[in-house]
Amino acid sequence: MFPQPISPVGVGLPYIAGLPAELYRAGLVDFVEIAPETICRQRSVRNSPLIELVPEQMKRARDIVGAFPLAVHGVELSIGSVHGCNDAYLDMLDQFQSAWPFLWHSEHLGFQTIPGENNATLQVGVPLPLPPVIEAAAIVAERSAAIGRRYGVPFLLENAAFYLPDLPADPELGDDIGLINAITQRSGCFLLLDLHNVYCNCINHGGHPMAAIDRMPLSRVLEIHVAGGSWREGFWMDAHDGRVPERVWEMLAYTLPRAANVAGVVFEMLDEHALRLNPAVIEDELRRAREIWDLHRCR
Question: What predicted TM-score, i.e. pTM, was given to this entire model?
Fold first, then answer.
């Protein structure tokens, strides 16, 4: 049996080591999301990858945000790689959960490794989207179900922003949203609905954001991300580099009453951009998220 939804938590902020600790305070933040790789070191042992938690970095994180409920948001699993996911990441997550239990965890729907020569695994460099084909849905659904059983808490997949149009598609699925629906139906996993990714795809490839949201499996949405972006070489990029666009706030207000199982909303930033933002800007975005959450959240 796949883990069931949990009670609403509220508004979250990623753990970023360089941010002022004062941002992580009750009333401004209800829970914290952490990418465990940010407190790890990676190395190779006998040609096998190893991801190790760094005790000093974990202690610092727990000293700052340990009083808050925790969600995990990974970046290294590569759940869509044909040759297999990153077992080193799962081994590390086993240790993480034992040391610091989390309410739910999530990963990006995509792949970032490919098989190389002599059984080597090659890093692509950036996460790439999966083609919306039956084979991809079956692979990811099977792995998602196994991960749900492994950790006993909800497992979420995040919808991707993509910049490569015209990926091969099976007519039964059609597009990236069809792929998401197929995976959640087959596996019972949940969805981390990244509204800025939906916004990016609609700007770059056409479409209406609210129509895209309506096609999502909203009953499976457990977490929502909002973020900022910027233009680069003719594309609106999911850069996580500033304030949330007004249209994305409108999407949040539209989505919350329609997604009955949402547990939390996270204002997402990348570390390097968060450190250059004035903390007052981050507080403003968190307060905006809370206003919309309080007004529209499902009770």
Answer: 0.95
